[in-house]
Amino acid sequence: MTIGVDLRPLAAGRRSGVEEYLLELLKAVVSFDHKNEYKFFLNSYHQSEVSLDFIKTRKNVTVCQFRIPSKLLNLSLRLFKRPRLNRLVSGVDLFFMPNILFEALDRQCAKVVTFHDLSFEHYPEFLSLKRRLWHKVVGPKKIAKSADKVIAVSEETKRDLVETYKLPLEKVVTIPSGVQIYEVDRQREKEVRAKYRLPQKYILCFGTLEPRKNIKTIIKAYQALRLHNRIEHALVISGLEGWKIEEVVGKDPAQLKLEGIVLTGYIDPRDKDIVYAAASIFIYPSFFEGFGFPLLEAARAKTPIIAAANSSILEVISNAA
Prior knowledge:
By secondary structure, the protein is α/β, with parallel strands linked by helices. It has helices at residues 17-32, 70-80, 85-88, 119-122, 129-138, 140-146, 155-165, 189-196, 215-227, 245-249, 253-258, 269-277, 293-300, 313-317, and strands at residues 2-6, 37-43, 61-66, 94-97, 110-115, 149-152, 172-174, 202-206, 234-238, 261-265, 281-284, 305-307. It folds into two domains: 2-174, Rossmann fold; 189-320, Rossmann fold (3-Layer(aba) Sandwich), CATH 3.40.50. The chain has a seven-stranded parallel beta sheet with strand order 3-2-1-4-5-6-7. The radius of gyration is 21 Å and the shape is globular.
């Protein structure tokens, strides 16, 4: 079988949940599947910063790279259902989409798509107007209904897909996300601490800085503890800046620093394990998650976890929090 894989989520070059999911999946699949042929569809007008070195020696993997401007490609896919993605990579029996994106495929080409959550359906207030319009135009429900199989990353997401989109139960299969398990090497800890100005003792909050992650509540709770001298740890908040960043962390980063709060910004994937491992506690207060990669990353680093008891979080972390 020849399988096409959509690598467009990697085009931006930054690694958050979907990108981690896709990279971990690719590494696992190419390491054990030598029978099927894979054709990776990558479209990026600019050079992607994500390394695909792990597939260079794989004879059954071909990267089909294009430089079509994303907006032009999306417009053409939406209005004209062209180009057919399976034809761009030529001769695939099945096309796998690791996330919902604009697409067009020939009917004879099987389609499998992963849904990470339906937060955009239940909490539209956590999305910018631009993102709400994007979801409306791309049509997640239509993509799910037209797919031959839908992958849910958790049982909670499967239940949500079946109930919200009225999908047949047998159409949705749960395949939990995963990370590689290994002993975290802390030899570079001093270097990483200096790079991100990490305090000696800290509580870590990791994720995109946006309202859905509920980071604002953690900041308020931490400030209350500091006000009454009930905590000696600093609070380290790491991740990409998202929508309504000022609402999440406030308008004055200097004031946060005085209060013992450190904003590191984006963490290089090569440093992430050490940032987790050096933390005294990892806290994950998100309002809604389809999975939650940071939970597994913190567990891999053997860092104690405090997490919100909602959505798929209990399923993912179980009694380890």
